[in-house]
Design a protein that fits this description.
The complex is a heterodimer.
Chain A: E1 10-14, H1 23-29, E2 35-36, E3 61-70, E4 75-92, E5 99-105, H2 108-117, E6 119-128, E7 135-143, E8 152-159, E9 166-173, H3 198-210, H4 212-215, H5 228-233, H6 235-252, E10 255-264
Antiparallel strand pairs in A: 1-3, 3-9, 4-5, 4-8, 4-10, 6-7, 6-9
Helix pairs in contact in A: 2-6
Chain B: H1 2-9, H2 12-39, E1 44-49, E2 56-59, H3 82-86, E3 91-99, E4 106-112, E5 119-127, H4 135-143, E6 152-155, E7 165-170, E8 177-178, E9 181-182, E10 190-191, H5 196-201, E11 216-219, E12 236-243, H6 250-260, E13 270-276
Antiparallel strand pairs in B: 2-3, 3-12, 4-11, 4-13, 5-7, 5-12, 6-7, 8-11, 9-10
Classes of the chains: A alpha+beta, B alpha+beta.
Chain lengths: 269, 280
């Protein structure tokens, strides 16, 4: 009588990429149930010796990719993304001569700002200059917004092609200003066009209204539900709070991990 | 061994049950670890750094390092020559602003008290090349330049006159809008008493500032923000010019009266503030 083993319905593989220049820091906090997501130069996470810049800041964006290899004809996956912030202290060890790295999770307040300020999208299109055809910007679609647990989930993604690596790309952006997320152009001081439109932008506005403490610094809860119109009318106040949250991230968080966990979509979803 | 003896004593049916149970147990033990190994290939994780935000910095002129302005402690407004001013030669002082790595636009504010009826003018500046000028020529352009086009301004670090850099004025005066002028007493421009800006500075019923201590606020507003030209090095240099109104305006008469009364040991305070203009 032989032993039969069940195969996993799918496998996730990272693309082959460069080494993380911050691997020493990652080693201190890496989840035990994940493998390293190697980054390439197009992801613009700036943690790779192929990148010119080091680290990310507001205004940066990129694309992160991986392979899904289903082992059956069709598999449906839920992709969950989590961003965790760490502060870091480095001390010189007089005994070993090395630098000791100590990573501490930052306080909940800054974890919330990270959940609100670093955005993930499933789709992205280029905006091209009509004369030169050069890419001058992007519009984004299908936002993957943060939930109550600060995680972002993309549900029910279908992958076919058994036993073949299907590349999947997720787009990330750290929006520079509030006016890229909401349409504040009814305010005469604002001229920036938002990066999403239609129901995608409605989803973002709803997320801001549901979790304003993810987007705004020291948000005082009031009975008012935020709408795009309210934020545009008082844009000075809200953009200042948005920028202050960015500043709080920059001064309190040194490193972030981006983790993707995958699960088969359960029946009935 | 005992198990084999025990096994032989079982009935055939019991033997089969025993075998199946053992095999399933083994299969279970083998299957579980294999599954756990694959669990790692469901999840991916990376780590990157968050850059620190840049700050707007105000500094003095530049002598010490080639690409960095001197620390702001070196900014001094001293040796103000009142007689030179009354002869039509403004006194000029250099400072700089670094608008962080973001190169965003910013606003400047000058807040000053009005004990001395100076006019304050701000210009953009850059280092001047004085090669080919002898000391006399340089001094003339510093001390006797009533026109901003030819004026040179000397900067040296505090307490050290051996290091010198000369600055020239570029372009016309930066437009600064006064927020709270009151053309009040004695024909002088003063800070307005009792307006919104007054209420932001003083507590009603508690503070009772002297007339000339109420600051006048001058700001770049609207379209007059300062932009940082990206190819011009990381610091924006400015020249603050102290003068008095030589026309028939209100400050002219005020200055003459003030100077005649031998008040030239009065003290004023000036605050220079740079504030990043939010990207809208």
């Amino acid at each position: 009588m032989g032993i039969t083993t069940t195969t996993m319905p799918y496998v996730i593989e990272p693309l082959s990429g460069g080494n993380n220049i911050y691997q020493d820091y990652h080693d201190k906090v890496m989840s035990t149930d994940a493998i390293i997501w190697a980054m390439t130069s197009t992801d613009k996470m700036n943690n790779n010796d192929e990148n010119v810049d080091s680290g990310i800041k507001p205004g940066h964006s990129g694309m992160i990719s991986f392979y899904v290899k289903p082992s059956k004809e069709s598999v449906n996956l839920d992709l969950t993304f989590e961003i965790v912030g760490y502060s870091c202290t480095e001390t010189n060890n007089a005994v070993t001569g090395n630098t000791d790295i100590s990573m501490t999770r930052v306080a909940d307040e800054y974890q919330r700002y990270l959940a609100g300020h670093i955005f993930l999208f499933a789709g992205r299109d280029d905006i091209k200059d009509p004369e030169t055809d050069a890419v001058i910007g992007h519009t984004y679609s299908t936002p993957i917004v943060s939930g109550a647990d600060l995680k972002k989930t993309l549900l029910n993604q279908n992958y076919t092609k058994a036993n073949e690596n299907t590349p999947v790309t997720i787009y990330w952006i750290w929006p520079q200003t509030l006016s890229t997320l909401i349409d504040a152009r009814i305010n005469s001081n604002v001229s920036i066009e938002p990066i999403t439109s239609g129901t995608d932008r409605d989803n973002i506005v709803t997320n801001i209204a549901t979790y304003p403490s993810y987007y705004f610094y020291n948000y005082a809860v009031s009975g008012v539900t935020l709408t795009e119109a309210i934020m545009a009318a008082e844009y000075d106040t809200y953009c200042d709070k948005y920028d202050s949250a960015d500043n709080a991230i920059g001064t309190n968080v040194n490193y972030i991990t981006l983790k993707m966990t995958t699960d088969e979509t359960s029946e009935g979803e | 061994m005992r198990i084999i003896k025990y096994f032989k004593k079982l009935s055939v049916r019991q033997k089969i049950e025993f075998s199946v149970a053992s095999l399933l147990t083994v299969a279970l033990l083998v299957a579980l670890p294999v599954f756990a190994w694959f669990a790692q290939n469901k999840n991916l994780e990376t780590l990157t750094k968050i850059q620190e935000p840049g700050d707007i910095i105000i500094r003095a002129g530049r002598t010490i390092k080639p690409d960095e302005a001197d620390p702001v402690v070196n900014f001094e407004m001293q040796d103000i020559d009142i007689e030179a001013i009354s002869e039509g030669n403004p006194q000029r002082y250099v400072f700089s602003v670094k608008p962080s790595d973001y190169n965003t636009k910013y606003d400047l504010q000058l807040a000053h008290t009005t004990n001395i009826p100076f006019t304050y003018t701000l210009y953009r500046a850059s280092e001047a090349d004085v090669a080919g000028l002898n000391d006399d020529q340089i001094n003339t352009r510093i001390k006797e330049a009533s026109s901003s086009a030819t004026a040179l301004t000397l900067y040296h670090p505090r307490g050290d006159t051996t290091k010198k850099t000369y600055y020239q004025i570029n372009g016309s005066a930066i437009v600064m809008t006064p927020l709270n002028l009151d053309s009040g007493n004695y024909g002088r421009y003063l800070g307005q008493n009792g307006d919104a800006y007054y209420n932001k500075t003083y507590v009603e019923g508690v503070d009772d500032p002297e007339l000339y201590a109420i600051p006048v606020y001058l700001q770049t507003t609207g379209d007059n923000y300062i932009t940082h030209p990206e190819n011009a090095g990381s610091y924006d240099y400015f020249i603050l010019e102290l003068s008095w109104d030589t026309g028939s305006g209100i400050d002219n008469q005020a200055f003459e009266k003030w100077n005649t009364a031998q008040n030239n040991k009065e003290t004023d305070m000036i605050y220079i503030t740079a504030s990043r203009r939010a990207i809208q």
